[in-house]
Structure formats: structure tokens, C-alpha cells
DNA sequence: ATGCAACTTAAAGTCGACTTTAGGTCAAGT
DNA sequence: ACTTGACCTAAAGTCGACTTTAAGTTGCAT
């Protein structure tokens, strides 16, 4: 298939496909005249790249994950990436819960609502509490 | 507190704080000469901004979420953001599971391993199966 | 054989989120 | 009074991920 077909199939502009090739994320299997030729499995790879982008991997990271040279290095990289995702999933979950509360909350400034802040685990400690029991 | 203290307390460079002020994400309560003066609660707000950034909100989005003018508009925005996060959490979970498998998988090309692709729900359908039962 | 839509390249431009630079001001310690 | 380090502003620069532009080439339908 030529670049236009890949573009149509994926929704990505041809310029993006050329850019991805230049960066080493995809390859064409040859040319017809000047024109790049891609085979079917590019579509799967592009879907994978799109998913990677959605979960905030950089193009360089994605390219590295495709590189199967050092198998252990790759394994470690994948693991590290999984850990990173795990951390982010937790933060996003916390934030989502906070936002759900804020959207339902009657307080006029969500962002000072103690419940909201507690959900986000921001500033739980009351500072300046006068005359603390000693 | 002056900008240097805020910077020390948060780890953010002063230039970033000025930039955030310029963009309307934070305010100083006044000046001493030229120098901005911030009060304590800036720290909480900056922590919130940092969390927002971590979960991929843009500065404009964060600023909008702080704006409590149209209470319903704000509510709708928060809800929409929560939905968006939910969607992303699901994608990230899928990707994390895929990566965990890939890191443990014996196959040399993780990215063509059918199990991996199935976890990511990419390309489940075998195309070109010859002589299909009619 | 001709036309032209779809391709090609290299280089410049854009956008968000900052950072860096250049040149200036000033509060506070000696 | 003087120095100096921390602040100030406006403007330019950087980085990643593309997009746009300008100028050229070519497969294919007529």
C-alpha cells in the first residue's frame, strides 16, 4: 500500500507517517519510484504507536520498546515502563476521585474544600492550630 | 514569603512561578518594591497544579478549573475531566498489563506476540486465512 | 503523450510549557 | 555609602511532536 492508503486507514496525515519513518518508528519495505510502499502490518504497528502516545510515551521511548536487540535491556525497559504507568494510574485515580467529588460538592470553592483536598491527599495537616494541648 | 522561598519550598524555579502568574494560575498578594509577595496557601495551590500536570492537564485547563465563576460550567468541566481521566486510566491499565506480559514473555518479538496483542486488543482477527470453511 | 493528483524532499513554522539571556532595580548587611 | 545577591522585565531560545510550505517528481487515467 502507498502512504495515502496508510493515511486513510489510520487517520494519520502522510506527513506524520514520514516523520515516524524518519524517527525510526516505522519502515517502508521499499519504493515504487519515489513512493514508499508499506505492507499491511504497518497498521498494527501504528495502532500500537497510537496507544503508546495515548499513555504518554514519547516517540523515542516507543522506538526503544520496539528494539529487540538487548533482550534483557528491553525487558527491563518494559518493566520500568509498566511501573511508571502504575504510578500514574494511581495518581490519575486519585485525581479522578477528587474531581468527581468536586463536581458533586456543594461548596463554592472546590479547591479549598477540605474533603477534596483530603481525597487528593494535599495538605491534610491543619497548621497554626492555636493553643494545642501540650 | 518572597519568590525564592516559594521556589525553595516547592522545588519550582522562580521563572516557572513567574510564568504561572503570567498565565493566571497563581497570584501574589502584593509587592515589596518590585518583589512579589506570596502567602502560605500558594503552596497548596502549587501542589494541586503539580498534580494536575502529572495527570496531563494543560495549564489552561488547570486555570479554568480554578475559576469558580460559572458554577455549573465549572461542574460540567470537572465532570468531563473526570470522564476523560477514566478513559485514560483504562487505556493505561491495558498498556500496563501488556507491558507486564511482554516483560515476562519468552517470545523474542514481544510486539508480535499474539498474547501481547490480545491484551492490548490490537488486531485480534486473523486476516488471509486460506480456504475458509464456506 | 499529456495532465494532474498524489507523491517526494528539505527546511521553516507552530504550539505548549518552560528556560535562558540581557539588562535593570533594590533591600539589607558591612 | 557601598556592595551584592536576590529579585525584576521583556524578549528570545529550547524541546518534542508535528504541520506547513516551496519546489520538484511521477504513476496512471484519458
TrEMBL record, chains A, B:
PROSITE patterns referenced in this protein's UniProt entry, alphabetically: HTH_MERR_2
InterPro entries per record: DNA-bd_dom_put_sf, MerR-type_HTH_dom, MerR_fam, Tscrpt_reg_MerR_DNA-bd
Residue ranges annotated for the HTH merR-type domain, each copy included: 1-68
GO MF entries: DNA binding; DNA-binding transcription factor activity
SUPFAM superfamilies the UniProt entry points to: Putative DNA-binding domain
Positions in coiled-coil regions: 75-102
Top-level taxon in the UniProt lineage: Bacteria
Gene3D superfamilies (alphabetical): 1.10.1660.10
Pfam family membership, one: MerR
Keywords attached to this entry: Coiled coil, DNA-binding, Transcription, Transcription regulation
Spans traversing the lipid bilayer: none
Protein name: Transcriptional regulator, MerR family
Organism of this sequence: Pseudoalteromonas denitrificans DSM 6059
Amino acid at each position: 500500500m502507498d502512504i495515502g492508503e496508510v493515511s486513510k486507514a489510520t487517520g494519520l496525515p502522510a506527513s506524520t507517517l514520514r516523520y515516524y519513518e524518519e524517527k525510526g518508528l516505522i519502515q517502508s519495505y521499499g519504493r515504487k519510484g519515489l513512493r514508499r510502499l508499506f505492507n499491511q502490518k504497518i497498521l498494527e504497528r501504528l495502532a500500537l504507536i497510537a496507544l503508546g502516545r495515548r499513555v504518554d510515551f514519547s516517540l523515542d521511548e516507543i522506538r526503544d520498546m520496539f528494539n529487540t536487540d538487548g533482550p534483557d535491556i528491553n525487558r527491563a525497559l518494559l518493566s520500568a515502563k509498566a511501573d511508571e504507568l502504575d504510578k500514574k494510574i494511581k495518581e490519575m485515580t486519585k485525581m479522578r476521585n477528587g474531581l468527581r467529588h468536586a463536581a458533586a460538592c456543594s461548596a463554592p470553592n472546590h479547591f479549598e474544600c477540605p474533603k477534596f483536598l483530603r481525597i487528593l491527599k494535599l495538605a491534610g495537616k491543619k497548621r497554626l492550630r492555636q493553643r494545642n494541648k501540650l
